[in-house]
Amino acid sequence: MPKMSLPLTDFKIRSLKTREKPYKISDGHGPYIFVSTSGEKIWRFDYNYETHKTLTIGSYPNVGIQEARNCLQIAKNDLKNGLDPMAKKKAIKTVKASAFTQDSFESIAREFIELHKSSIAPKQHERNIQMAETRLFPILGVRPIKTIKAIDILTILRDIENQGYLNTVAKLKSLLNQIFRYAIITNRGKRFNVLGALDFLTKKVTTITNDSYIRAAEVCYLLWKI
30: closest CA among 16, 44, 11? Predict the structure, then answer.
């Protein structure tokens, strides 16, 4: 009778040590953890589809135990429906990559932030990147900038406002204002700035320091660099 492997726990996974050779530990009848010689722990799933294949689910702890099990169940359902889980994963990646077009919010925002880098202090440049990557790109990143409405921006700002970070709201509004104005002058945004209607809908901070705005000279400078 084959020996049954017990389901993994976080404690068990964290306690796995590196060995001279890579090895794997099964999660019961679920996926398994592949432990490399460098100590990386990767969720994998072996299956047969025309030939023997291995699906990489993700690394631990970025992908937790329950998420890995959910991914395994999806993969098993795909196999039942005649789909190759690995081919499906590659197709999804291709779709996501194609969504990141030159007119997406993230691509235009990164372009503006980089072009604007030399006209602001290094700390403010780093702050702009950090705000965009944590507050904006996860929600707006892949969307074409022309499809973004004022209500989309307001939802983000109100959420941050409700957390009490009024300074962050003000700085984000300034950055967003510049990004949308940049999209307009490079003929990739709407003819009007969606930020214009938000001033009276969000709370204001009495004093904001180290803020920057696109002035006429900066517009010329940016257009010259494109």
Answer: 44
Q: Which pLDDT does position 220 carry in this prediction?
A: 45
Which residues have a Cβ under 8 Å from the Cβ of 167 and sit 6 or more positions away? 205, 208
Amino acid found at 169:
V
Q: Cα separations (Å) of 138 from 35, 37, 114, 115, 153? A: 30, 33, 19, 22, 13
- Read off the pTM: 0.48
- Write the CB contacts of 192 (distance below 8 Å, at least 6 apart in sequence): 184
Per-residue pLDDT tens digits for 68-111: 999 999 999 999 988 999 998 887 777 666 655 668 999 999 99
- Token digits for 162? 């409700």
The 10 Å Cβ neighbour count of residue 189 is 22
Secondary structure letter of residue 201 according to DSSP: T
Cis upstream peptide for 31 (omega within 30°): no
